[in-house]
Specification:
mainly beta; Immunoglobulin-like; 5 helices; 40 strands; 36% strand
């Protein structure tokens, strides 16, 4: 029998059709893009903003596009309702920033005109209380001459110092004026040349200066993009800035107390003094002589590596005031690398008591994280007592981004995570003493180097990369009052994703009792070769047919066509004589029917 084409089209467009197994980015060669899983009861319902290949997309939970902009690097909505992004679609370097409205019209733009400053990676719009006005903070590499390096106590034998850049944080007002600047190079210390003013002093060492950075850092002499800072945040309550270096450290500095309203020259000079030294640093105490180094098969006291997206958890959210960071897991000395989300309370002491003031992490001490599974090939490691929450996947390769990435604490306590190198967006619950965090939403970016894809196959990292992602609700100023109508998905496909019931049913090996409603489970395994099992449940006895069709609606198998009793039933479908591709199975009971997709891969 051939399925009626109109009816078959209806089944194709039905939201109940599912293709592929919901999986994360690792250990799988082929899988569908866009929304793969959504637990509507546990996820934080809203709209997700991300950029890919020069465009920014705002999607709903099912993956429908709500709006898009022809700009796309690291976009985020502002409290004034506009979208702010870089002017070039490459986080590693761009000329400046552009602020656009809902329709993409430019309302503000800034271009760095100084030839020795190179903006990159991150920025944040803040409200400067001393100016009573909005300003923009951004990271920029600033060139340093060889003479400056040697004069500052750099060891001449360590490097050529011919192309040195050291990160600065620049603040610009809405008129494009530089009103404040802070530079790492103004806060260096060294133990090489006692004739220089920044020498540690007789009988002292680098360990006595955690508030400054060692210009002769072990294994990392001054060079181009020396620290590679990639994220920045401002805490309006504290007046502090946190900035992260991919080398494996984050630093907190004082903005408000080094800012003089109406005096940019005085502000820059004050920020260069000891008033601008680090208030706190976290990540690798070996860099300042207060910890052991990461080596092969040992992380030592190093906590983060290759890290991105440092920020404070906002007021009113779970963990408010703590610091979150995407710990990529690079340069940690782990036998098998993976990525983590770390949440840090910088006020914790060795007793995990909140002191209300920054505590040097080595003083807070460490505990030993006993890895629970031997087959993951992970060694136990020292974790700072200031780390109050960690998220990682159980399968270490399911969540691993070599570069990039973001995390955002949501109002319901969940965390939205973006794994850059695989274009993998997902939301996890916080978990508690009795349960681990659970994935409650998952999305794979379909925008790739080769165009828009419905399926992703094995590719090199960054093929469908997403640097960061943010979740917003309709009450945000950028969305309030907007129609927020669905414009279709990026691929043009009707959303097809798993729900909690599908996952539970797909993994059941047997059920007793009677279901409360008709239930058709996703075949298992899926994709399959050459056999798979299809399970369904009947709340009452009825005449049932279970039929398999190919992609154009031709019948290829009838698995059952008879009266069946109430309860759960399972049938095996064998595709020995069929070609690889998408197939559909349709369950008819009386006047109702439901269908799902399955994928045969030979």
């Amino acid at each position: 029998m051939k399925l009626n084409k109109l009816y078959f089209l209806f089944i194709l467009l039905s939201n109940s059709l599912i293709v592929g197994q919901p999986r994360t980015a690792g250990e799988g060669f082929i899988g569908p893009t866009e929304t793969r899983y959504w637990d509507a009861a546990k996820a934080y319902n809203g709209y997700t903003l991300f950029a890919a290949k020069g465009k920014s997309y705002l999607i709903d939970m099912e993956g429908y596009v709500i709006n898009q902009w022809n700009i796309g690097t690291n976009p985020r909505f502002l409290d004034n309702g506009n979208l702010l992004d870089a002017t070039k679609s490459d986080p590693s370097g761009f000329g400046g920033f552009r602020e656009v409205d809902w329709n993409g019209n430019t309302v503000w733009e800034y271009t760095e005109k100084r030839g020795n400053y190179f903006p990159h990676h991150d920025w944040t719009r803040i409200f400067n209380k001393k100016l009573n006005a909005a300003t923009t903070l951004y990271i920029a590499n600033k060139t340093v001459t060889k003479d400056q390096c040697i004069a500052a106590g750099a060891n001449p034998a360590s490097a050529s110092y011919t192309d040195v850049q050291v990160d600065a944080i620049v603040e610009v007002d809405m008129s494009g004026n530089i009103v404040w600047e802070w530079w790492f190079f103004d806060h260096i210390i060294q133990d090489f040349d006692s004739s220089k003013p920044n020498y540690v002093g007789s009988g002292k060492s680098i360990a006595g200066y955690p508030n400054k950075i060692n210009i002769n850092m072990p294994g990392n002499p001054l060079k181009s993009d020396w620290l590679h800072c990639n994220s920045i945040d401002y805490n309006e309550t504290l007046g502090h800035i946190v900035v992260n270096s991919v080398q494996g450290e984050l630093y907190i500095i004082d903005h408000d107390n080094t800012f003089i309203a109406g005096n940019p020259t005085g502000s820059i000079a004050l920020a260069a003094t000891s008033a601008g030294d680090f208030l706190y640093r976290f990540g690798d105490p070996y860099r300042y002589g207060q910890g052991t180094a990461a080596t092969i098969n040992s992380t030592g006291n190093k906590q983060i590596g290759g890290s991105h997206d440092v920020h404070w958890v906002k007021a009113g959210l779970l963990g408010a005031g703590n610091i979150q960071i995407f710990n990529n897991g690079e340069y940690l000395g782990e036998r098998v690398s993976q990525s983590y989300i770390f949440e840090i309370n910088p006020y914790y002491n060795s007793q995990k008591v909140n002191t209300g003031a920054y505590v040097n992490p080595p003083d807070a001490g460490y505990y030993t994280w006993i890895y629970p599974n031997k087959d993951a090939m992970k060694a136990n490691k020292s974790i700072s007592n200031q780390v109050v929450w960690i998220y990682s996947s159980k399968n270490d390769q399911n969540f691993y981004s070599t570069i990039g990435g973001s995390e955002q604490r949501l109002p319901n306590g969940n965390t939205l995570i973006c794994s850059d190198t695989q274009g993998h967006l997902f939301e996890v619950t916080y978990g508690d003493s009795t349960s681990s965090p659970q994935v409650v939403w998952e999305y794979i970016n379909p925008v790739t180097e080769d165009g828009i894809k419905k399926l992703i196959i094995d590719q090199y990292p960054m093929y469908n990369s997403v640097f960061r992602a943010y979740r917003y609700t309709s009450s945000h100023p950028a969305l309030a009052g907007k129609t927020l109508s669905k414009q279709g998905t990026i691929t043009g496909s009707t959303p097809a994703y798993y729900k909690p019931g599908d996952l539970l049913a797909a993994n059941e090996t047997g059920n007793s009792g009677i279901p409360s409603s008709y239930m058709l489970c996703q075949n298992y395994p899926n994709p399959f070769n050459p056999t798979t099992k299809i399970k369904f449940g009947l709340p009452a006895g009825s005449n049932v047919s279970l039929t398999v069709y190919d992609a154009v609606g031709r019948e290829v198998a009838v698995l059952v066509n008879s009266n069946l009793s109430a309860g759960y039933h399972e049938y095996t479908f064998s595709a020995n004589n069929l070609a690889s591709g998408i197939y559909f199975y349709l369950l008819r009971t009386g006047n109702s029917s439901v269908g799902k997709k399955m994928l045969l891969l030979k």
